[in-house]
């Protein structure tokens, strides 16, 4: 039937009236809900400048925080402090071996409650980057891949391998479908604005390239409404965005592989992760700030700090040789406390960049090179007052003058000054205005009562049934169920073998691929050996006394975690590989391939679960004598440390092993592996408050080494109550003095001047001024000393401004400290160093 145009118009009008009538019948509440539902959904796209969220370009300051490395009770404060530090995005990995430790059996509860973690981030008004993996590295055991995956027939990880792709696709869909069901993607109104997939294409050549193309198709086929990124993958297939990892991506990143992709920095390493045997290592906040300012000055619009909070590798979750404490020098330390000045200086950087936001996102970039050491990068929107400049001095030794738009600026050595209006310096990467803190470990009065240690010693097997003709590979033997694998073999020695030779006693020689080893011969403990993170292989060699007839050799192979990086991880091997007796009358006796070996996984105490209350009664405990052999379990009870501050246990007097509190795995400790400075890499081990009860907490320790001294163990309370300031008189005043209004940078107050700000945490107040000097003091927070120049009234002035206050502001200028109007050292450029102690009033 043909409809005339006039009839067609009438019909459309009638339909429109009906629809309007129906909408009018909706209640006001229904309308509001409908509007809110529509408004919450965010479209996330990108172009060559930035990510675009709901039509708005964004500068993104992101920080890596990993949910399994802290407790759900800690998450709210950590996320809150991240937001207060100027972040607007949280990045987290998804840990496959946490969520699917057994094939087909998933866990998303407790520390593995990914949904709860993301919803807490959303509650704080922050975005999320979901680093899906499936391989994550992250100094996490097996790079986050579950052990069972290693035993899938024919599998090769992270390449165009059908078994790997089959299991990867199943896992990826489980995680992403869960996020979708919970409406956590931005396209559904949730906080997840970006996905990240990890690959390593180069090692696998064509198969690697095919794999990353497959991975890209997989995640994009799920139509989740968010962009996806690959780091360290310069040829990431469209529409994947290639991104940078490293310390100085402003100089090392070749840039996006297409003009329509933004410059994203997915890992800016805030420090160096630690391995057992390492000395202390730090990355200065001045270097981090410089690198971020440089990246943003060169078209960068996204940075992620890896890590912003490192946390703790609880239980046996760390990768090989990696310490239990993870990225402790991040802006939020292991305990979730603000590590100053790293936290505050980066917060000020974010404030400064936000003042430049319009210019960076909409301005036209320009570059000038006044000299070999200096550089000017600025963004300007023609026809407006919108302009922002970055003045860089790349001279690592001396300050440089830069002339820009008729004005001269002095830029300190290797630093960048930020001018959000191309006129006013509001921040310099090398000048720290924020306060400093020093961490204290205070011995608990309540927890450290006389410990009544009881012990249970493992039986060392002399002969385990087995028919292996070589020592079984240790990863495959333990299957990540334990750190420990036993090896036994027997061998006969006759009189000719024992005939004396000029070389003296025969030698037992064991070559191991790692990680550590304990050795017994005929029931006598011979000692131990170990490798390191850099050189895992080692040789244990020792003169031995053999007996005529049958001799029994026992070895305990020890893991410190699985490998976490590199290609062909499924073919990495470790443990004892070659065993021989040297110097026998008949020559060298090779025990590796000429003897049958027995193997056994783990300790009896592990099998019986004696680390927890319900397993204690399964063995007979005896009172500690003080002369226990190795492979001994220790247990005692203690009361929770006073206050609600973070708590830790110091493992003084111990060797190497594992710690549990109330059945919860605190982590691996290794006190006997000393750094080149002669100290253990880690002494204190975090015990989250959620692990503790007010009274009678069960402490269980498995100690590998003999003759330790558990009586030296103590519990400590952690605080950052030592607060300092260290500011030069010519530093740029804090960026907090400035705001942007009507496209202009304006001072919030009429009087913009340099101040030192000191602030106690919580309800604490400044109870003492421990150091103050306006002159040329030396040292760092916690270790200041007077220099050759000092204003005598320094301490008196600081006490006047600060004592008894929760927060104080001290003007940093000569008139404040030279009250007698005399400058005893006029040629010295002054700095103010202050150290105060925070504490609670007795009332509090």
From TrEMBL:
Recorded GO MF terms: beta-galactosidase activity; carbohydrate binding
Highest taxon listed in the record's lineage: Eukaryota
Stretches assigned to the SUEL-type lectin domain: 756-839
Xref: CDD domains: Gal_Rha_Lectin_BGal (cd22842)
InterPro entries: BetaGal_gal-bd (IPR048913), Galactose-bd-like_sf (IPR008979), GH (IPR017853), GHD (IPR041392), Gly_Hdrlase_35_cat (IPR031330), Glycoside_Hdrlase_35 (IPR001944), Lectin_gal-bd_dom (IPR000922), Lectin_gal-bd_sf (IPR043159)
Catalytic activity: Hydrolysis of terminal non-reducing beta-D-galactose residues in beta-D-galactosides
Keyword Hydrolase in annotation: yes
EC code: 3.2.1.23
Main localization category: secreted
Subcellular location(s) per record: Secreted, Extracellular space, Apoplast
Keyword list, A-Z: Apoplast, Glycoprotein, Glycosidase, Hydrolase, Secreted, Signal
Keyword Signal: yes
Recorded family membership: Belongs to the glycosyl hydrolase 35 family.
PANTHER family: BETA-GALACTOSIDASE RELATED
Name of the molecule in the record: beta-galactosidase
